[in-house]
Specification:
Length: about 150
């Protein structure tokens, strides 16, 4: 054996090996990073079937979002709300934060009366920019060849 190998190995040649500790540390750090970063993604996937409209525009920036499902359950910014009074308090709090756009996402099967109540609530809170979310109409298939 060479002199350099003897100096590096010392007396015990069986101690030669690959230290896996840094590799395991990196793997755990990556795992922790991905677990923590994915928990901050906000999922707003409520089971809503929005009505169709001929013209539809997106909403940009900060807005107050109210969702109304078919079973009359309400959500304010994706958090469940029990009553219209609780919704009014939540909308007022959001307005105090400076949000002035009100977006209503009502399922197409929701009762018209409930939609009107929510729109009236937004108007009574002093919100003037009130929008109703829709999805685009599917254009009729004109001139389809057979």
């Amino acid at each position: 054996m060479s002199q350099l190998a003897e100096e590096l190995l010392g007396e015990d040649e069986s101690a030669v090996g690959l230290d896996m500790t840094p590799f395991v540390d990196i793997i755990f750090n990556l795992l922790l990073f991905f677990l923590l970063s994915t928990s901050y993604v906000q999922h707003t996937a409520l089971d809503l079937s929005l009505p169709r409209a001929g013209r539809s525009a997106g909403v940009t920036g900060q807005f107050i979002q109210v969702d109304l499902k078919v079973d009359d359950s309400l959500f304010l910014n994706s958090k469940p709300v029990a009553t219209l009074e609780e919704l009014a308090a939540g909308v007022a709090a959001e307005k105090e934060k400076g949000q002035t756009i009100f977006l209503l996402r009502a399922d197409e099967g929701a009762l018209h009366g409930k939609v009107v109540e929510i729109l009236d609530l937004a108007k009574s809170q002093g919100l003037d920019d009130i929008r109703v979310a829709t999805r685009p109409k599917v254009p009729a298939d004109r001139g389809r060849r057979r």
